[in-house]
Design a protein that fits this description.
The chain has helices spanning 2-11, 30-34, 47-57, 75-86, 100-105, 117-127, 142-170, 175-183, 190-200, 211-228, 233-248, 258-270, and strands spanning 39-42, 66-69, 91-94, 97-98, 109-114, 131-138. It has 271 residues and is mainly alpha-helical. The chain has 2 domains: 2-139, NAD(P)-binding Rossmann-like Domain (Rossmann fold), CATH 3.40.50.720; 145-270, Orthogonal Bundle (N-(1-d-carboxylethyl)-l-norvaline Dehydrogenase, domain 2), CATH 1.10.1040.10. The longest helix has 29 residues, at 142-170. The chain starts with a helix and ends with a helix.
């Protein structure tokens, strides 16, 4: 996702120095890429990688620079990293996104931001080049918390939507009129409106968001619930299913492929 996002910033007139561990960046290391930068953006798999990259880049950043973490990270880890940056007079905004690769390509991402008002105001002009809907949801770490909750709801809705499809198919019903009825009713969600017709029924199974990353985000939400002492049985059950699917599916499986896991599991139960 970071590749098209960097392209949007260049098009908008920003000078972009980039590092990509997979190759293709303009610089050979995070520290090299961060030299003289006013703003450092990260789009990485998890908070541990973000922390390593940001601390590596820290000595090269300008005094008073701003770090914008657009990854999906643990909120408590984000707050700890923010404290370390504040001690070095560097600001931070957590700005995770929703919209997957397609949203990154057409700059239509939804962006959930946490941080001080002054840091958010500073980050917003950059974020406006990357997304369409930008929300300041609270202090540092709040963006990552809201992203985890959003993805928990998406993950639970995905399981429910795919189970409903499997039941409809078992009844011998054609999927399209079933989906049309549901999407005109109260049961509609992103899965019934987008995932099933565009990914499952077409056989595409290529949303651009990995099953492992969805599992990670649901786990972040579950960890928050545990740490806050909130009883969340549906969240625990959702995480259980995603972890089981992640264990059974290939490491690089798209999250839509959990449908295949559910279908196979349904057949095993029949026997």
């Amino acid at each position: 996702m970071g590749v098209p996002m960097a392209g949007h910033l260049r098009t908008a007139g920003y000078g972009v120095q980039s590092y990509d561990k997979r190759g293709g960046g303009t610089h050979a290391s995070p520290r090299h890429a961060a030299e003289g930068a006013d703003i450092l953006l990260t789009m990485l798999p998890d908070g541990n990688v973000v922390r390593d990259v940001v601390l590596d880049a820290l000595p090269a950043l300008k005094h008073g620079a701003l770090v914008i973490d657009m990854s999906s990270s643990d909120p408590l880890g984000t707050q700890a990293l923010g404290a370390a940056l504040t001690a070095n007079e560097i600001g931070m905004v957590d700005a995770p996104v929703s919209g997957a690769v397609r949203g990154a390509r057409d700059a239509s991402l939804a962006i959930m931001c946490g941080g001080s008002t002054s840091d958010f105001v500073r980050a917003k002009p950059v974020l406006e080049k990357l997304g369409r809907d930008i929300f300041h949801v609270g202090p540092l770490g709040a963006g990552h918390a809201v992203k985890a909750l959003n993805n928990y709801l998406g993950a639970a809705g995905t399981l429910a939507g795919f189970e409903a499809l499997l039941l409809a198919q078992k009844l011998g019903l054609e999927p399209k009129p079933v989906l049309d009825a549901i999407n005109a009713s109260t049961g509609r969600n992103w899965t019934t409106e987008r995932k099933i017709p565009q990914q499952v029924l077409t056989g595409a199974f290529g949303s651009g968001f990995k099953l492992a990353l969805m599992t990670k985000d649901v786990a972040i939400a579950a960890t928050l619930a545990k740490e806050l002492g909130v009883e969340a049985p549906y969240l625990r059950e959702t995480l259980k299913h995603w972890r089981a699917a992640a264990k059974a599916m290939p490491e690089d499986a798209d999250h839509i492929e959990i449908y295949k896991y559910q279908a196979k599991r349904s057949k095993r139960r029949k026997r």
